[in-house]
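Weekly puzzle thread! Below is a chain. First person to post its structure in token form gets bragging rights.
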Amino acid sequence: MKIQLPFLKGISIICLSIFISFFNCNSDVDVQTTEIQPLLTDVLTLELSIGEISGLKDDFILVNPQYLDVNFAGDILVLDESRIKVYEKSGKGKKIVGRPGQGPGEFETGPLFFLSPEGFVTVVDHAKSPKLTLHSILSSSGFESYYNLFSPNYNFIEKKKIKNKVILSEYLKTKYPDSNNTYYIAGIFTISDTDKVYEVIVKNGSLLSDVRYNRLLLYDNSKAIDLIKESIHLEFGVAISEKGNINPQPIGGIYWGLITGRKIMYVNTEEDRHIEPSGSFYTVHVLSLDTFEEQEIIHSFTPVILPENVKKRKFSMPSKSDLRKMRRSTQQMFTRMEEVYNFLINDIKSRQFYPSICGLRIDRDYAFLFLNDGKDRKEKLADVIDLDTMKHVTLAEFPFIPASIKNVYVYEIAQDEEGFSEIRKYRIDPAVYGK
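Winning reply:
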């Protein structure tokens, strides 16, 4: 591990007093700033690679892994070939969960699984979703889709159609009564036999009718639905690189996750505050699902200015001759894309800085908030927050944003020298956790 000094991290006590009065903080809000804090580097040590040379049985050979997560027992769950391949922490194949199909415990095209701290695995099918032409960045399913639920021991529990969750459907219809509304499930986390947390996207009208959507975090205790958080976002945003490239990505938004003790944490980058001369700050929220009491940490960060050249870019429409060769529906799609693109550029012009963070990973009660640097590089700095003590612990540099961080290990989907897929497991230096 190496220690460096980060740029401009921290503010003075005088500025802090001004900032506290601005936020009108109460006892549940902790404003945290630090003196110039050491930056931890070289914090990962490769311990294990799971792949072509691992001597795996045929069923466990990785073909095209799309997603992974890890439970507290150290099991590595990998979505591959429309099934979940489970590996022991040693890398040995343990169990295959599900398979392609339409029956109980089977997945249709495009499944995605959600692993709760309690170990329940909820697999949501995307096969019945409409084609998300402009909405493709939203990894979501329509309410006609099914979900499969598996126990922490990977035993099948149930398969249900999402729209048949009457309590959820009725809640959304009451809150958003417009018959043109469209609902999508971006996540289902099962935390007990009766309790679930949903991430729901609500569109007003068709996918192409509006450039904004509502994102809801909802708690379902089987008797009632409680709103955890609601926010409004652009239909799709832009990830702006230092080279001026624009790709379909959200412009900030809510980064959230479940933590131990039946709690949820989140950061909404729309709450970023830039206060002169105090500095820039983001807010970490921790909310109990039992009492709905909430704690907050307001922490300083170094803002990155949006480059002016990005604000001047224009959408590249096909030539008129090429457009004439296209179907009318395709022509309309390009016209709509240009309208949405111009709307997004106007939104960008109103912003001075990048959102504070660009990624979140959680290891038990530790949150790793990956800071936005606006650069085309894999390396990212991460603020490490202890969500139990509600304190900022360290600032560390990671060579990439991991697929998962669990049990003091980082996990990555990568390729070996021959181009075959593999899972890499790295041990994290204990200093990152303040130990």
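Puzzle host: Confirmed. Bonus trivia for everyone else. Residues 380 and 398 are 5 Å apart (CA to CA).
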